[in-house]
């Protein structure tokens, strides 16, 4: 086997085998089929990457199909958000499809199943149906309505469509096997009555097809060659194939290519919820500010937080395609955004917890503009001018009156380098009535200016601090985010609600001071605040009110907590 063959994942092996067995390459067609009942999250990026990635690998079309069969939970807002997210990730779909476009065809095929004795109208209550369906260890029993005549079933099903019955009064079920070890094969529902307006079809329909009936038939209509889904749908494969093989028109030349369902493991991420229903609960209860809250694992939340499409794609590629469920450490995702931004983000200075420094021997009223590189390690990032004056802000944690030899930042009697500026030495400090340091007094050496190439500037100083000039500093709101959940698997506890693990300190709003070059930063632009982490300009920011989101720290700080 060639090296190329060895690198294939198991889905690619399946496709290669099908091609080797005679499937024309031009028959390859894939799809990504989200239900528009919520925003896409990081878990969906694996399915997106697999389907669209295979499309790119084989130069095959990939449909974006919305499985919109439940008007009670689906909205146009979700459709628009899903399209935006997929486009942002850098993928293009061949056709934009909707299961609702096939409602009439699905109805007609259901009628054919009834005529063929393979579907019937059941008039039991949902409670009775659950009871007679049995358990995994006990076979089900036939519905008392299972033997209705074809004529009666056709009349009732048409009456359901025409709105003659109440919700729950009748359902349409496939007639398969109530003793099947696979409970999904025990006469599954195909249609239910719902008097809900659909976001696309309005009030044209009052019966709506169930997912299992709709999904495979939509694949067939679109002539999808490989229907790829996550592992929880593996038990559904038998039903998928039954529907596929029992609808009469599929034997015609109009639909020559039966789709093949295959399953891969879904993406599970530590400290994260992957249920759209539970994510909606966080939104509805006000735990987060919306689906695009930067703490949310939604693609829109990650985008607003400052994640890049490249970092997410690299994450998905590293995770790979497998058949076995596992939990991926969220630290890998954080590593990927650090890796990407380390190569692409400009370095700037911002002080998040400021304390004032007065350089006593710097001339009062004097100001100077210092030239600073946006990146000391890579060319092509350019430079900017940074103002310097007698009074500056530094981080409060960067100063101690006394400290041991391992503290290389500012302390009394010791010298540090100010990034792009001078060496300063702390001489004294002022405190308020609570003992809080309010001002640090220093002296500077005018011969140590960055770039001077003097003997003085070559002195070995272990500490380098970032800073901003007090007079020129731009006030900014910084939203520092922590993980939304304190537990590694917040929804894995049978005896506890996932809401019990919400981190009450997942957001800290800080008033910071940043260098004036950031005043022209655009929404979504990403920066490294030197020594502090990576940040981006939030959607709420204006020219008069700068707001930055903390994307991620420079290194993993979670492990030590």
From TrEMBL:
Chain ranges of the Glutamyl/glutaminyl-tRNA synthetase class Ib catalytic domain: 28-342
Organism: Polaribacter atrinae
NCBIfam families (alphabetical): glnS (TIGR00440), PRK14703.1 (NF011291)
Entry EC no(s): 6.1.1.18
Similarity comment text for this entry: Belongs to the class-I aminoacyl-tRNA synthetase family.
Glutamyl/glutaminyl-tRNA synthetase class Ib anti-codon binding domain sequence ranges: 345-445
InterPro entries: aa-tRNA-synth_I_CS, Gln-tRNA-synth, Gln/Glu-tRNA_Ligase, Glu/Gln-tRNA-synth_Ib_cat-dom, Glu/Gln-tRNA-synth_Ib_codon-bd, Glu_tRNA_lig_a-bdl, Rbsml_bL25/Gln-tRNA_synth_N, Ribosomal_bL25/Gln-tRNA_synth
Major enzyme class: ligase
Organism classification: Bacteria, Pseudomonadati, Bacteroidota, Flavobacteriia, Flavobacteriales
GO MF annotations, alphabetized: ATP binding; glutamine-tRNA ligase activity
The protein's name: Glutamine--tRNA ligase
Cleaved signal peptide residues: none
GO biological process, one term: glutaminyl-tRNA aminoacylation
Residue spans of biased composition, Polar residues class: 134-144
Keyword set, alphabetical order: Aminoacyl-tRNA synthetase, ATP-binding, Cytoplasm, Ligase, Nucleotide-binding, Protein biosynthesis
Domain tRNA synthetases class I (E and Q) anti-codon binding: 464-538
Entry GO CC: cytosol
Location of the region described as Disordered in the Swiss-Prot/TrEMBL record: 124-144
């Amino acid at each position: 086997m060639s090296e190329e063959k060895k690198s294939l994942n198991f889905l690619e092996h399946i496709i290669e085998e099908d091609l080797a067995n005679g499937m024309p390459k031009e028959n390859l067609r894939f799809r990504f089929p989200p239900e528009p009942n919520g925003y896409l999250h990081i878990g969906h990026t694996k399915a997106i990457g697999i389907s669209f990635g295979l499309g790119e690998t084989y130069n095959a079309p990939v449909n974006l199909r919305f499985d919109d069969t439940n008007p009670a939970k689906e909205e146009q807002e979700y459709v628009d958000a899903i399209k935006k997210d997929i486009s942002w990730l850098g993928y293009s779909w061949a056709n934009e499809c909707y299961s609702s476009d096939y409602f009439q065809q699905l109805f007609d095929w259901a009628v054919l199943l009834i005529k063929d004795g393979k579907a019937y109208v059941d008039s039991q209550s949902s409670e009775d149906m659950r009871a007679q369906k049995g358990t995994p260890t006990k076979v089900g029993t036939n519905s008392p309505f299972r033997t209705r005549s074809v004529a009666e079933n056709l009349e009732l099903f048409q009456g359901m469509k025409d709105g003659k019955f109440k919700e729950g009064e009748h359902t349409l079920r496939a007639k398969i096997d109530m003793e099947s070890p696979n409970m999904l094969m025990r006469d599954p529902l195909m249609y239910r009555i719902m008097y809900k307006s659909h976001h696309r079809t309005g009030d044209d329909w009052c019966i709506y097809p169930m997912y299992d009936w709709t999904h495979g038939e939509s694949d067939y209509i679109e002539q999808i060659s490989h229907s790829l889904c996550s592992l929880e749908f593996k038990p559904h494969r038998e039903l998928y194939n039954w529907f596929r093989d029992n609808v009469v028109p599929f034997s015609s030349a109009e639909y020559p290519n039966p789709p093949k369902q295959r399953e891969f493991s879904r993406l599970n991420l530590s400290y994260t919820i992957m249920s759209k229903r539970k994510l909606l609960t966080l939104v509805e209860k006000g735990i987060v500010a919306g689906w695009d809250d930067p703490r949310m694992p939604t693609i829109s939340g990650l985008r607003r937080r400052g994640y890049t499409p490249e970092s997410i794609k690299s994450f998905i590629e590293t995770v790979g395609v497998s058949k076995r469920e596992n939990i991926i450490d969220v630290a890998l995702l954080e590593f990927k955004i650090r890796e990407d931004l380390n190569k692409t983000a400009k370095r700037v200075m911002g002080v998040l917890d400021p304390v004032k420094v007065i350089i006593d021997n710097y001339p009062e009223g004097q100001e100077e503009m210092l030239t600073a590189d946006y990146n000391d390690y890579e060319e092509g990032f350019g430079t900017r001018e940074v103002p310097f004056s007698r009074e500056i802000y530094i981080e409060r944690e960067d100063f101690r009156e006394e400290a041991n030899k391992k503290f290389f930042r500012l302390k009394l009697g010791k010298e540090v380098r100010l990034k792009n500026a001078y060496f300063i030495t702390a001489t004294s400090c002022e405190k308020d009535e609570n003992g809080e340091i309010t001002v640090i007094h220093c002296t500077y050496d005018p011969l140590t200016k960055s770039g001077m190439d003097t003997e003085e500037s070559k002195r070995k100083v272990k500490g380098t601090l970032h800073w901003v000039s007090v007079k020129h500093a731009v006030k900014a709101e910084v939203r520092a985010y922590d993980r939304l959940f304190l537990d590694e698997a917040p929804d894995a506890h049978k005896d506890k609600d996932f809401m019990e693990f919400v981190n009450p300190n997942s957001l800290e709003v800080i008033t910071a001071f940043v260098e004036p070059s950031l005043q022209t930063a655009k929404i979504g632009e990403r920066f490294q605040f030197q020594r502090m982490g990576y940040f981006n300009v939030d959607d709420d920011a204006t020219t008069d009110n700068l707001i930055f989101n903390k994307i991620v720290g420079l290194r993993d700080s979670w492990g030590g907590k």
